[in-house]
Each structure stands twice: as C-alpha cells, then as structure tokens.
Amino acid sequence: MANPAGTAPASALPAAWSSQPLLMIEGLTVDFSGVQVIRGIDLTVARGASLGIVGESGSGKSVTWLAALGLLPRTATVSGSIRLDGEELRGAAATRLDRIRGGRVAMIFQDPSSALNPVIRIGRQVGEVLARHQGVSGSSIRAQTKRLFDLVGLPDAARRFDAYPHELSGGQNQRVMIAMALAGKPDVLVADEPTTALDATIQAQILDLLTTIRRERGMALVLISHDLGVVSETCERIMVMYGGRVVETAPSDSIFANPRHPYTQGLLAALPPFEGALQRLIPIEGQVPEPANMPPGCPFAPRCPQRMAVCEVAIPPLAQTEAGRFSACIAGPAKEAQQPLKLSTKVPA
Amino acid sequence: MLRFAAIRILRAVLTIALVVTFAFLVLRLSGDPARSIMGDDASPEAMAAFRREWGLDQPLWMQYLHYFAAIFQGELGRSMRGGGPALDLVLGRIPATLMLTLPALLMKLAIGIPAGIYAALHRDSAIDRAVMVTAVAGYTVPSFVLGLVLVQVLAIWFAWLPTGGTGSLQHLILPIITLGVGGAAVLARFVRSAMLEVLGQPYIRTASAKGIPWAAVVRGHALPNAAIPTVTIVGFMVGNLIAGSVVVESVFSWPGVGNLLVVSVTARDLAVVQCILLLVAVAMVLSNLIVDFLYGFLDPRLSTGGAET
Prior knowledge:
The complex is a heterodimer of chains A (349) and B (309).
Chain A (H helix, E strand, L loop, with lengths): L14 H5 L3 E10 L2 E11 L4 E5 L6 H8 L7 E9 L2 E2 L5 H7 L4 E4 L3 H4 L6 H12 L5 H13 L5 H4 L9 H14 L4 E5 L7 H18 L2 E6 L2 H7 L2 E6 L2 E7 H6 L4 H8 L49 E4 L2 E3 L22
Parallel strand pairs in A: 3-8, 3-9, 6-7, 7-8
Antiparallel strand pairs in A: 1-2, 1-4, 4-5, 9-10, 10-12, 11-12
Helix pairs in contact in A: 5-6, 5-8, 6-8, 8-9
Chain B lengths: L1 H28 L3 H6 L5 H10 L6 H13 L13 H36 L4 H15 L2 H15 L12 H30 L2 H8 L4 H26 L6 H6 L5 H10 L3 H29 L1 H4 L6
C-alpha cells in the first residue's frame, strides 16, 4: 500500500509535480509519557490537493499535524517520518522548522479568538509572517496586510490593521487567521477544526473562502473536522481516523455513497439527512477508548455492530478494497457493497 | 477613560478615609496616651492637663471631627512625645527607609522576575525545581528569623558586616538582603505561574506555527501577556516601600519610618502613628492607581472597550 491516503493531484498541475507527493507521512506514532496516542499513520498530500481528516475528539487527527510540524510539547515522543518535498522534518533543526512553519506549511486553529494574541494588534500579527517569510518590511507590511485582509473578505480592511482581536467577531478573527496563514504563501494549509467555534452561517462562509483560496492559489488543503458533512463538501478525499489509526480513506463522493468501515457507516448514520422528513439520528453506541486502555484488537471493536471474535485480538491492516479506497476492517471488506447499513438502532431515551 | 479615572480616584480617596477612620478608632480605644506618655505615677492633675492640652477630654466624635477637619487643612497634628509636627518627624525618617526598601525592591525584581521566567521556560527541569525549592524557603522563613540568622553568621561568626545601626554602606547590606529575599521568592513563584499560564495559551502555539523562533515567541508573545498579572504584585511591593520594613528596621535598629512606628505605637503617640498610617495608605492607594492605569496600557481589552464589559 504505497499511498493509502494519497490524494489525487489536481489535473491542471504539471506532470513532474505529481510524481513526488508534496507531503508524505509514514509510520507516524506519538507517545505522551508512555501512552501511545498516534499508532502508525501513513498519508500523502499532493500539490494543490484537498484532504479531509475526520474523527471524534481523541482520534488523533490534530495531534498528527501538530507532530508533523514539531508543535507538540517536549513530553511527546514522535517517531516515523514526515517528509516535505523529500526533506525529513522529524528531528529537523529548529531554525529549519521555523522556515517551514508558516512559510511552506501553515496551520490555523479551532478557536480563532484565543489563537490570536490578545495584546498585539492583528495587523502586526499578520505582518510578523510577512516580515519573516516574505522579507517584507516597513510601510509595505501595512499595504500587503490590507491586501490579505481584502482577499479573506475582512470588512473595512484598511482600518482593521490597528484593531485588537477582542474588537472583532469570531468569524472575522478566523479570517484574520486565514490571512495570517496565507501571508507566508504556503504550499499546504492545515485547518484544524476552523469552523467548530463559529456560528453555522459563518461556518459556510469560511469553508467557501478556504475552497476558493485553495483553487486560486493552487495550495493544498488539509481540513481537520469531526464533521463528515463539512469535510465532504470541501475536500476531494477523506481520511477517517479512530483511536490513533486511519480506519478508512476514499474519495469523498464514494465514501458517502458506500462507506466501507463500520465506523464510517456509523458516522454517516449519525449525520442529519440533507432532504426528506426529519428522522431520528442513529448514534454510535459507547465511547472512544482512552489511549491508555486501547483494546488489543481493532480499536473500534467494542462499539462495532459487525464485530467478530477475531476483531478483538487482531488489529486489522489498512487494506485496499477497490481502486483508490482503503479500509481497516476484517469484517467490512467481505461485505457486499450494496448491503444496507447494519447498525445498532437503539436510541438512548 | 475619563469616567474610569474618576471612579478610580474617588475610590482611592474613600479608601484613604476608611483607613484613617479605622486607625483613629483602634488607637483611641486600645489605650490611654496620657498614661503611656506621662507614666503611671503622674499626678491626676498633670494627667488632666495633658488630656486637655491634646483634646483628649472631648467626646470621641468631637476628636474625630477635629482630626478629620485638620487633615483637610494639611495639619497632621503634633507628636505628643517630642512636641514637633508629626508630619515633619515622619517625613524626616522616609529617606532612611527608602535607602533600604528601594534597593530591596530592585533586588526583588532583578532576581524574582528572571528566575520565574527561567523556571517556567524550563519547567520540571532540575533548575526549575531548585528555583522553586529556594523560593518556598525564601518566603516561608519570616524576615526577623532570616535577619537574625544573617546577623549571627555574617556579622558575628565571620564579622564581615556590622550587626546593625547606621554609618556606612556596609550597614545597608544585611537589612537589604533580609528585605529582598522574601519578595524575590514571591515574585519568582508568581512570575513562573503567570508564564506557565501564558505559555499554555493557544496563541503561543499559533506564534510557533507561524515560524517565529522560540526566543522571539517568548519575548514578543509570552512576556507582554505575563506582564499583566505581574504588574499587580509589583505594584503591591511599590506600595510597601514606606511601611514594608517595620520588622527589619527593628532587627537592625535602623532609624526609619518602621522604627518610628513601633516606638510611637508603644507610646500611644497618636498623631505620629496616624500620620504614618495615612502616608502608608496614600502610598498603597497611589501604587494601586498606577497599577490600574498600567493595566489599561498593557491590556488593550481594558482600555479599548469592545467585547469586554
């Protein structure tokens, strides 16, 4: 399995680029004081591609990217390989990582209001990136920041340079975060739950903005979310994580039509339908296992309606089910593709 | 901003008035100045004359009103012991006290702040633990104990420094160290926890994710935020410049305000005690006011309105 989570390169890009993936993670594991929270992740991101990463809290989707950029606290032990254009990032010198972070790989975070420094004017926070990665200085910082604010649709851009984060709304702050991320002209933008803290209407605007910017700039986008619906609208390819592992990867349209892994099936069943009468949503019974108490076999086995005896002892490998699709399930791939969802339909009172 | 300032100043004046009232009541109700100054064997006539001279024969509320009215005329009474104006007596002692407390404040800042920042940046390292153990020891040992130990070791055993009194720069060293250690320890612990709090904030991770080198993240993003709570405690130390050395001045027989306060309380020299308390209250309230205005400067959330309030 060469590139299990590999994203199809945009067809418009030169062929030479598509031969080597832009970013490649292999065998990534992360331990926090002896407890393994990431248990072997492989993925690739091609230039200009969009990858959605879905999973519940604690599935390891954010930690994967914090680890890739060396942003985890020192208590974390990271192993495996993270390569950007073939250059190994794990264990790279701090000065090298500082050039890459914000310059080639930018990251934006969940709660924009706390992700911006409360005592520094937002213009200066964006200007820092321009100065560091683009060598911009003096009065052109203000001009370029204004241009970025216009690009991300921040109203009244010229006047906002001197504003503080608390003077802006959550959605406006997230636009500032995106402007800050774009300031370094990155090849990859990792958006970690960028809309979770925002109102539903603002959420759609921010997602549209991310999609537009990705298209216009040919920038790859990694969108991390717990919401399969959000990710499928924005990304070409989806990777589902559970218990620190990848359980399924597939193009987003086919994962919706035909989820392979029982966990993905559960996530889909828990989504409200786009049309038709409102009906009861079907929750996935049980809880995500604690990293310290991972079941010995498949991490999803205790909650899985299709579990077999073997699931509780053997960890299923991520195996190809058909072209471009991978699933880590012993029971799943054997099932007929059109089989209706077999899920526990008990709904808690 | 103007409203903010007006409310702060009004509150400051009210605080001072409360302190003055409280000091007046406690001192009048807790002992008889005529007896403590004239002595137990003074004749009843002499006592009565003393009371009349100082207005102590009037009802308490009359004394209070007179006292308050006098304060507004800048009249802080006369020392019952020496007879001179209480204010002159107290002001005359302030330079001696500041000779100890100002260098001690510098010592607190120069040791406490860097130690706290370093400990936070190297959390759980050996140096962090050493700093914290030292800090706990530094602020749990009372200053009179520390002072006496320093005297015993450095002044008596090694005879490097004088045991107390005034006269040379050497006389300053032990009292300043005794005063500075506790404050440096408090500040180190406080700055460490303020820094740890800030370093755990999402905006620090954002700054790192932008590719800002760690040293610049600490300098440009963490320190300005950690400064906000630290200003409070430094302001408290500044407010204590006049009255913070009572114990140390006694241990080292230093002729400052603290020493005068102890002597005047023992003698029930009301005017002097009240004058000192008034000055202390004014110093505290002023430093609090400065802290409030500094907040507005350091934390834009307080001065530019917006989502807060």
